[in-house]
Amino acid sequence: EFLRQAGIYTQETIRAARSFCFSAQPVLLTGDNGVGKMELAVSIHRYSDRWNKPFIQIDCAAVSPLDVMSGLLQNGRRLREGGTVCFEAIESIPRQQQ
């Protein structure tokens, strides 16, 4: 099953999320806190052709923008191999630094 708790998402959301599994383009998931954006991100990664590559979650509210960049640089090789980066709370970083 694509999403275990599919009852909390509309069918339109599930269809869109499934379509993202087949795309190499970046995806921006937006919504209020607690609506399940992280679960969607994990499901998209898990059902994509990158399922066996790293899923790197970065909580931008918990680290400085420099730490975010440092983390990306440290994981650069893994990411070039096809991993997924999920930026949580990216809105906590000033827009010009995003």
Distance between the termini: 34 Å
Helix and strand pattern: HHEHHE
Portion in helices? 25-40%
Widest sheet, order of strands: 1-2
Q: What is the number of helical segments per DSSP (H or I, 4+ residues)? A: 4
- Mean pLDDT metric: 83
Strand content: 5-15%
Gyration radius, in Å = 14 Å
Largest sheet: 2 strands, parallel
Descriptive overview:
This protein has 98 residues and is of the alpha+beta class. The chain is 36% helix and 10% strand. The protein has helices at 11-20, 37-46, 65-74, 76-80, and strands at residues 55-59, 84-88. It has a two-stranded parallel ribbon. The mean pLDDT is 83.
Q: How is the secondary structure organized here?
A:
Layout: H1 11-20, H2 37-46, E1 55-59, H3 65-74, H4 76-80, E2 84-88
Parallel strand pairs: 1-2
Short key terms for the protein model shown above:
single chain; 98 residues; alpha+beta; 4 helices; globular
Put the structure in a nutshell.
The chain is α+β, with helices and mostly antiparallel strands. The protein has helices spanning 11-20, 37-46, 65-74, 76-80; strands at residues 55-59, 84-88. The protein contains 4 helices and 2 strands.
